[in-house]
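Input/output pair, single chain:
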Amino acid sequence: MKLPRKLREDIDVNQNLKMLTQAYQEHAIEQINFARYSVISSREFAEELEEIFFNVKTSYKSFLEALKKKNKHLLQANKKDKEVIVLVTSNNKFYGDIIAKLWHAFYQRIKKTDLTKTDLIIVGRQGRNFIEQSDLPKDYRYLEIPDTNFTLETLKPLIALILPYERVTVFYGKFNNIISQEPIEASLAGDFPEDRKTTEEKKSFLFEPSIEHILTFFETQIFSLLFDQTMHEARLARFASRIKAMEIAQTNLQDQLRKLMQRERKFRSIESNRKQQQMFAGRRLWNKT
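Output:
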């Protein structure tokens, strides 16, 4: 009797899956090694830029309020008086649980948001799949950005979409370490959360050449740099989550293979005993004749 085909197929499938998870893990490790230093070293600089952006924007609002007292018809720069919320996911799968965590955080926020005053942008096929299968409104813009090989030039269509908004909130994954990645809700338009705004000390600044020129620079060039940093943060978190997920998958596959191998050995032992019994039975018959 041959080894049951289903058992042999299960062993082959698990061995192939184990090889696949190892390949995904090795690729993720290469991406982490390539990107981790540059992303983390730029993180502190980006945080300082965000604080400067906040100070510039706050100063500009104070500047406008002062002018409005003199000219009641003065209007602010041409910005959409709405918030845009951007969900940054991935196109491909096998990124562990970080995408699901991101979706959960995004979903909870949107359920409490007045969508008449908010526009939604979904980045990545996984995010689109989530929102299409949910009970959220389907009025959103969708874009695809490569999971790995993207540049500031690649991001320009997305940046052009969100630049006109007064308030920009981005949901993305943040890399803490190989073990820990977390979903982040961050403002990229020079705004801090309400609790931080109240604790910020009000400061006065001198601007050269003018506050309008400096704000324009921050709302274009600096904003683009901050968004680029955010996308690289998201990529780093995805690959770290993949390493962790592939490690768990390999452990589970190894356990499954061990059980299948035990069943295989047990079957072969039973088959060997059966053949020996048949051989001994045949000998007894020959001895009787």
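The domain at 24-194+203-245 is CATH 3.40.1380.10 (Pyruvate Kinase; Chain: A, domain 1). The chain has one domain: 24-194+203-245.
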